[in-house]
Rap-GAP domain-containing protein (Coemansia reversa), 240 residues
Amino acid sequence: MNVNYYHPIEKTELFQRELMALDRVPSKETIKVALFYVGPGQWTEAEILSNTYFDTSLSYRTFVESLGWSVDLATFKGFTGKLEHDGSDGKTCPYFIEDEIELVFHEATSMPTDINDSRQLKKKRHIGNDHVHIIWNESHHNYRAETISGDFGNVQIQIRPLEPGEYGIGIYCDNPIKPFGPLVDGMVVSANVLSSAVRATAINGHRRATQMFFKTITHPYAIRQKMINRIAKKHLSSSW
């Protein structure tokens, strides 16, 4: 065995704390996306954010279930998009994971609705801070990009049920975000590809939006590698 490949480390209390800090840095790209339901005749932010699960349609619920898996926030150890574990942000949330990505949907009807707060600020503090909004629109009105007030919602994916099994897509992007796909404005898609296409578009939209705010994006594994190198160099021991 060539010992030159290995280096002794001093197991100090500081070393243990820095390892714990390293464990809190995600190894995958983490993305949070807002998702909400617009019911028949609804128009305002207050109406939309006040919807509960029981106000939604079966087709919307089926779509939500197809986006990923419902995880129990009380016990889930993965990325939650800052949703609390104590039930104050709901009991469950839709979650998706693949090789390099963890994706959480801030699904508005899964969050508690406060009957004493017409603005639903507890929901808004999550949804209003997401770069990407997915809107399931069963209203007879065109959804306005400024409906959910705030500085985010830079990419908005609107889904409108058409004929059975067909869905119209509307895409809104802040300037100077360039087109990204796979869904484009005005497209009509079938039910069997809807969830995967919306999910892929949300991921690409999030990346484009974050590039607008941060000119360079560093992948989490590169951040972790840099931290590992720094910790190793800092805690090298002179002897085995």
Residues 191-213 form the longest helix (23 residues). Helices lie at 13-23, 45-49, 58-67, 121-127, 191-213, 220-234. The chain has six helices and eight strands. Strands lie at 29-38, 69-72, 92-98, 101-107, 132-137, 155-161, 166-173, 188-190.
